[in-house]
Design brief:
The structure holds two protein chains of two kinds. Chain A contains 13 helices and no strands. Chain A has helices spanning 7-30, 35-38, 50-59, 64-96, 102-111, 117-130, 137-141, 148-161, 164-172, 177-206, 209-214, 223-234, 241-261. The longest helix of chain B is centred in the N-terminal third of the chain and has 32 residues, at 68-99. Chain B is globular, with a radius of gyration of 25 Å. The chains are: A mainly alpha, B mainly alpha. At the A-B interface, helix 1, helix 4, helix 5, helix 6 and helix 10 of A face helix 2, helix 4, helix 5, helix 6 and helix 8 of B.
Chain lengths: 277, 297
């Protein structure tokens, strides 16, 4: 059999790759342009203003941009960590125990995936406002912990990765149930839990609706809502556009790094087969 | 001992159940409650307790459904979805099939580059494309103008649908491509080795063997893409500062937000939100039922 390169498929894929890289390359170039260069020079050539743009962004309202980045890291990091833990214990219980109501609980939690976020966010805001939590870090963190999807994945993963015989043998030896989970099931489920953590991290980092509804003080904003508020002010003050552009570039760097660094944990294959069940 | 053993799974499930109760069940119940009530002025309308919540039955629903903006918004979202879902999934399937071909080159690079937009929040993606749609900063317009043409207006009228569809195609194709590609990799190659030896073209193999085998993944991606489409919010919200032709009620989601937080009409917003949830659930369950019935027969 001939092993020549098939050029048509290769070129079509490269075309797709170029299309996906265009906005990223554009923002990379645009962030290097000074205010006057932005509207006057060809956009795929670098400018001379990168350092002044960075300095200006850092100086903007006493460095509020970096606070937004920290907030995003906090919401996504802590939220995804708690989410992975809750998914792990729930998935383990649903996969490894036979009890009345198991099917009902699982179905009800899964239905949560289908609930429109806006139908949840408005009453969540009003209820949290009643207990004085609206506008605080908690108001974004708490609703992000339960991930029906994460529980589903953890259940699939626990069923596949934790053998019943091992659990039974440890039970015979008199191990307590909590210990069974922490010292046997948890380590076996860990690779799957990293995947759940990553998916939930991206979901929270990319979320706009929930923090936009919940937060009013820009000191608590994640970077998505922060840049949005900056863009809105930019509509009347185009001088802010260079800040928005520089901020947009910096905001996508952490996620791309996370993504390239942990490539082997992006187990999309875990997602397949949802329809089968 | 046997008794305590029986409660073990419930103990493990307790955090999830509590969170579900507090952040799913309770808010939905509260939305339903709000949707059936209204604020009414009591007496002369003076003083702190001058307004009280009264039961109004289905009045809010009647008002919500009679509002032509809701229906128009739903129509706009359907039109956007009809453009987005086939384009995005068509491209995702095409790219996945090309990646699965034995003699394609630069596969790792292309796969990574096409998956990259998944790491970009919708709000940032809209922001980047929004600037690329602005004739004064876009390289596309720069080149078109240099050639003596004026580009299409993507920020007004029908162009907006194209603008929004493009943002979401850009953001969603890679993820769906990976889901489909993973399904393709799970198919044992022996299944089409003999077809290849019999002289079938790769296109025939893709159409006759691969696509039928990965149907569950295609159904899955279609289902979740459609749901995500109905929830479009961040993208039109981001484009709004760049154009004057995107109203605050462009999509039903935006209308709920405006009614609740800009106009302070919590009760009517709740009714609209409940209608959106009911329609979403109805569509989802009928779709899943249809799929299961077809799978069973």
């Amino acid at each position: 059999m001939k092993r020549r390169t098939s050029w048509v498929p290769t070129l079509v894929l490269l075309l797709g790759a170029v299309y996906c890289l265009i906005p990223v390359l554009w923002v990379l170039m645009a962030a290097t342009k000074s205010r006057s260069e932005l509207f006057s020079t060809f956009t795929f050539l670098p400018g001379s203003g990168l350092w002044s743009n960075l300095a200006e962004l850092t100086a903007y309202r006493d460095g509020v941009y970096w606070l937004w980045m920290l907030n995003s890291a906090l919401y996504a990091g802590v939220g995804a960590l708690l989410s992975a833990v809750v998914s792990a214990v729930s998935g383990y219980a649903l996969a490894k125990f036979d009890f009345r109501g198991r099917g009902v609980i699982f179905t009800v939690i899964l239905t949560g995936v289908l609930m429109p976020p806006i139908t949840l966010a408005v009453p969540q805001y009003l209820l949290l406002a009643k207990v004085d939590l609206a506008g605080t870090y908690w108001s974004v963190l708490l609703p992000s912990i339960l991930s029906p999807y994460g529980i589903y994945l953890a259940r699939v993963y626990a069923a596949a990765a934790v053998p019943d015989e091992v659990l039974e043998a440890a039970r015979m030896d008199g191990a307590r149930e909590l210990r069974l989970f922490t010292s046997i099931a948890w380590p076996m489920m860990l690779p799957g839990l990293v995947t759940i953590f990553l998916f939930q991290f991206v979901a929270i980092w990319n979320n706009f609706l929930l923090p936009y509804v919940m937060l009013a003080d820009d000191g608590t904003f994640p970077v998505t809502v922060g840049l949005y508020s900056l863009l809105q002010q930019g509509a009347s003050r185009p001088a802010l556009y260079t800040l928005v552009i520089t901020g947009a570039l910096l905001s996508i760097i952490p996620l791309i790094a996370l993504f390239l660094g942990l490539q082997r944990y992006w187990r999309v294959d875990l997602l397949s087969g949802v329809v089968k069940s | 001992m046997a008794h305590t053993r029986r409660l073990v799974p419930h103990g493990f499930l307790a955090p999830a159940i509590v969170l579900f109760g507090l952040f799913f069940a309770l808010p939905i119940g509260y939305a339903a409650h709000l949707s059936l009530h209204s604020m009414q002025v009591k007496g002369l309308g003076l003083g702190r307790n001058a307004r009280e919540e009264v039961w109004v039955g289905l009045d809010n629903y009647a008002t919500a459904l009679a509002d032509p903006e809701l229906l128009a918004g739903a129509g706009r979202v359907l039109r956007y979805g009809a453009m987005l879902v086939p384009t995005m999934l068509g491209l995702a399937l095409l790219f996945a099939l090309l990646l699965d071909l034995p003699r394609t080159r630069f596969r790792a690079f292309s796969r990574l580059a096409i998956f990259l937009p998944y790491a970009v929040p919708g709000i940032i993606a809209s922001l980047l494309w929004g600037f690329l749609y602005l004739p004064s900063v876009s390289p596309g317009y720069f080149l078109l103008n240099a050639a003596g043409w004026s580009g299409p207006d993507l920020l007004h009228g029908d162009g907006l649908f194209l603008a929004l569809t493009n943002i979401s195609v850009w953001g969603g194709t890679g993820f769906n491509m990976i889901v489909i590609y993973t399904a393709l990799r799970a198919v044992p190659p022996e299944l089409y080795e003999s077809a290849r030896l019999d002289g079938c073209s790769e296109a025939q193999i893709a159409w006759r063997i691969k696509i039928p085998l990965i149907r569950p993944s295609l159904v899955l991606t279609f289902f979740f893409s459609t749901i995500a489409t109905l929830q479009v919010f961040a993208e039109p919200m981001t484009l709004r500062p760049l154009t004057n032709s995107l109203t605050f009620t462009w999509s039903p989601y935006m209308k709920v937000y405006r009614d609740a937080f800009v106009q302070g009409g919590l009760h009517s917003a709740a009714a609209t939100a409940v209608v959106i949830a009911a329609v979403t659930l109805l569509l989802s369950f009928s779709f899943l039922k249809l799929v299961n019935r077809r799978a069973a027969s």
